[in-house]
């Protein structure tokens, strides 16, 4: 549980995106793409889920990437190599089904890019033709472009403000790729799978785009969690009319079956409490 | 002359609902001696048969009366490793006190005149703690070359580890959460199960060379096969009934509708009642409804009421149960305490649907009235809906406490482990051995939602069988 290294990948108005390698031989050995860990920064802290971005079984360490969004991620961002986490458990959730689909399209938005990286890499290793579409608000906030390029046959980048790549959204490029994919780029190979991770509005839009093309689309959901072992139901989502627990039935689900409205609402349950504790933290740090 | 049962001191009802401090204060020495003196010392004591672990109640009470507190303590410890815990949470009125000769025949639970065996056990457990009494380890040289893995640090796992450690057998307990104790920690609130008592009992095990590893989820980070490959000779499974049952009614996923497991885990394990000092939040409404009639429902309701009071909300917490009070499976003491603290009760009512606002937060509960019909498989009269009796209740927070199922995490990745139609692990009733050789199980993973003491009883059976199994290797 020792933090081995730390790197700031980008910084936009104080909400940094940070990468850390953490010592955890067992999780490094057992973890698979698509799985996550739950960690605590201190005894009084929250349990938060974070995707395993990469594993180094030889060094016995795992890589996480997170954005300083709320209190716990800010505290985590303040830790340094040599510091220890209070708790770290994993690997949790179902691993991604990696196989040769022929052609896959990987879509990553914002910090979600960190989550699609291990899947893109594994899909490439499994012999797929990998088309990757990355989206960020601006050039400053684009992460892992080089690494994704290294595991993709085609790479497209979009930015909301047009500061890099194509101006627009990942779904604009996705639509183009899908209409092309019906035969042209890779002879006779239609898109076998679309795998998307990013902010909920992005994943939701991807789902509606692929629905028209009838392509199997998998998304990884970011529901709130407590124990993350199937014990409490905090992370429950409705998929295909059935109640599923993101932590043990997911975190990946068929995008066309997810009740997105419900997920959005359930993610806001603690908005006021989150705001309160962050403002307290701001006051406390200002008083230092 | 019939002696009156000695009441135990408790914190005053309304004041205590402002904190999570322990409610029952227990007997002092005078009170314990007086209550123990009421025991008739039956020639053929029926109380022992009522105890799931067969504590020699007659003997420990006799020793207590003679002020041989140490002797009494060790008598209990012969059969039960956690008297301070059991003395606080055992539903004695359905067990030893029910079979006590002083209980009226045919009564569904203990009569008030029955000896307060649980309070006496608690007195002695706490005495042992205060005086640091230690049960000697009787090392069995034949066993020290083996090592046993215990999965889960709840009552079953802890009891199994304790039994084996007493024989000098190396034991490693793997716990998936960051804190040990299982239900004792996340399920039962501090006002019933103080944390210092729990920590003391668990630290005691560590002193007996039991290795406890938290944040280690067997089934995720390691499989049973891998544990055997690592050199463990036998495994005890005590994962617990960790999947919450929901009602399955419309609107159940609205915000502020919690499973009891989630609500209690936030409050008890993550100390959400101390938010923002502790960072995990829990919401509290102005009109809280807890659905269910067991101990979990009582714990949830009493915790919700406390949260209301601590947040300066006018207390309005209601327990909604589809049968009547006498059918409630909760400990009678918890029901009494809940009433004293101001929890309201509504019987013969069943939830039909939840209604929420445009932000997805629950606002109302639609209910149906019920009447009692023929007995069902549990022997209790079945609730029958009364058509056309719909009505609405204000509800801006609900806690669903209608039961639990076996946690499937390890089971899903261990197909050779045979389970029954409920998802519980199938075991041989005498040895608690599962369909996998060398793998034993006990506690809620084996049979629904039992009590702490039942889990310990199964763990004892399993630990005896494990020793037999190892000696045959």
Write up this protein.
- The complex is a heterodimer of chains A (about 290) and B (about 475).
- Chain A is an alpha/beta fold and about 290 residues long.
- Chain A has nine helices and 16 strands.
- In chain A, strands 11-10-9-8-12-13-16 form a seven-stranded mixed β-sheet, sandwiched between helices. Chain A has a four-stranded antiparallel β-sheet with strand order 1-2-6-5. Chain A has a three-stranded antiparallel β-sheet with strand order 4-3-7, with no helix packed on it.
- Chain A is globular and about 55 Å long.
- Residues about 185-190 of chain A have low confidence and may be disordered.
- Chain B is of the alpha/beta class.
- Chain B has three domains: about 10-130, Fumarate Reductase Iron-sulfur Protein, Chain B, domain 2; about 150-240 and about 405-470, FAD/NAD(P)-binding domain; about 245-405, 3-Layer(bba) Sandwich (FAD/NAD(P)-binding domain), CATH 3.50.50.60.
- Helix content of chain B is about 35%, strand content about 15%.
- In chain B, the strands form five sheets. In chain B, strands 5-4-3-6-18 form a five-stranded parallel β-sheet. A five-stranded parallel β-sheet of chain B has the order 8-16-9-10-11. In chain B, strands 12, 13, 14 and 15 form a four-stranded antiparallel β-sheet that branches.
- In chain B, strand 10 (about 315-320), helix 15 and strand 11 form a beta-alpha-beta unit.
- Chain B is globular.
- The chains are: A alpha/beta (about 290), B alpha/beta (about 475).
- The interface of A and B includes residues 47, 91, 261, 262 and 266 of A.
